[in-house]
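F.,

This is the one I mentioned.
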C-alpha cells in the first residue's frame, strides 16, 4: 500500500496521467476502499489530495477524510507538518464543494476556512512586486483591487478585480465576496460584472524545463475557475519579455480583455 501511495503522490506532483488511466484508478479505488481508513491520518489526507489533483476523488473517499473524527486533530496543529495537512484539507474541502455538486457532506467547519492573521510573507519575488505595482497603477484607486487575497479554498490570489460590462473597475468592498472567509460585502455585483483573479506563475511552479504547471498549481487554477473567477495567468516567461512599465501595463490590459472575451464567446 505504501508503494501505491508514493506513486499517487508522485503522479499528483507532476499532474501525470498514466496509460490505461481508467484501469489504473479503478485499481486504486479498489485498494483504498478497504485500506484507506487504516492509513495514518496525515497520509489519508495526502492520498486523497493527490486524487483531487488528478480529478479522481470519489464522494465516499471525500467523506472519509472530511469527517470530523479525522480532520479535527489537524485544526489546531500549528506545526509545519500540521499546517501542510490542514492546507491540503482545505483543498479537499474545496474540491468537494466546487467540483462535486452531488456531494452531501460532511465538510470542514466554517472556523477552519478562516485563514486568520496572514502568515509571515516569504520573500517577495520580483514578479510578484512588479505585478502588484503595475496593476495598482492601472486601477486608479485602492478600493478597486485586492492583493494577496487569502480565500476559503486554501489558495491565495495575487490580485482580484471586478469589471463592469464596459470593462471599468468596480469598488470591490461594496460587493459580496463569497470566496473570502468569512464572506464579505452586502451588495450583489451587477449580473454582467466579471470577477478576475490574477495568478502569477514562477519558474518553480512548472515541471522541469516545460511550460506545464505542477499538479498543485493545476488544482489551484481549476478551483479558482470553479469559484466563478476568470483567470488572468501571468507566467514568468511572458513577464520577463516585458521591458518597460508601458509594456507591462499593456500586457495586463490585454490579458484582462482576452479573459473576458473568451468568457463571452462561450
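My design for it:
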Amino acid at each position: 500500500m505504501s508503494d501505491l501511495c508514493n506513486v499517487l503522490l508522485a503522479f499528483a506532483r507532476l499532474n501525470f496521467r498514466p496509460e490505461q488511466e481508467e484501469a489504473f484508478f479503478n485499481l486504486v479505488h479498489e485498494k483504498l476502499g478497504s485500506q484507506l481508513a487504516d492509513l495514518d491520518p496525515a497520509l489519508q489526507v495526502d492520498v486523497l489530495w493527490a486524487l483531487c489533483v488528478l480529478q479522481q476523488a470519489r464522494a465516499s473517499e471525500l467523506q472519509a477524510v472530511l469527517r470530523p473524527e479525522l480532520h479535527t486533530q489537524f485544526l489546531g496543529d500549528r506545526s509545519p507538518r500540521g499546517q501542510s495537512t490542514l492546507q491540503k484539507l482545505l483543498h479537499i474541502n474545496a474540491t468537494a464543494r466546487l467540483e462535486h455538486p452531488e456531494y452531501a457532506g460532511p465538510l470542514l467547519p466554517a472556523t477552519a476556512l478562516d485563514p486568520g492573521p496572514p502568515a509571515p510573507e516569504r520573500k517577495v519575488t520580483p514578479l510578484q512586486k512588479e505585478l502588484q505595482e503595475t496593476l495598482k497603477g492601472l486601477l486608479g484607486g485602492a478600493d478597486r483591487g485586492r492583493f494577496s487575497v487569502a480565500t476559503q479554498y486554501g489558495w491565495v490570489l495575487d490580485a482580484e478585480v471586478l469589471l463592469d460590462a464596459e470593462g471599468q473597475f468596480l469598488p470591490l468592498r461594496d460587493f459580496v465576496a463569497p470566496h473570502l472567509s468569512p464572506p464579505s460585502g452586502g451588495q450583489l455585483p451587477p449580473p454582467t460584472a466579471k470577477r478576475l483573479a490574477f495568478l502569477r506563475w514562477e519558474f518553480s511552479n512548472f515541471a522541469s524545463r516545460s511550460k506545464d504547471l505542477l499538479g498543485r498549481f493545476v488544482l489551484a487554477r481549476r478551483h479558482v475557475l470553479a469559484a466563478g473567477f476568470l483567470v488572468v495567468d501571468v507566467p514568468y516567461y511572458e513577464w520577463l519579455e516585458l521591458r518597460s512599465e508601458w509594456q507591462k501595463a499593456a500586457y495586463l490590459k490585454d490579458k484582462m480583455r482576452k479573459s473576458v472575451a473568451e468568457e463571452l464567446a462561450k
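The mean pLDDT is 93.

Talk soon.
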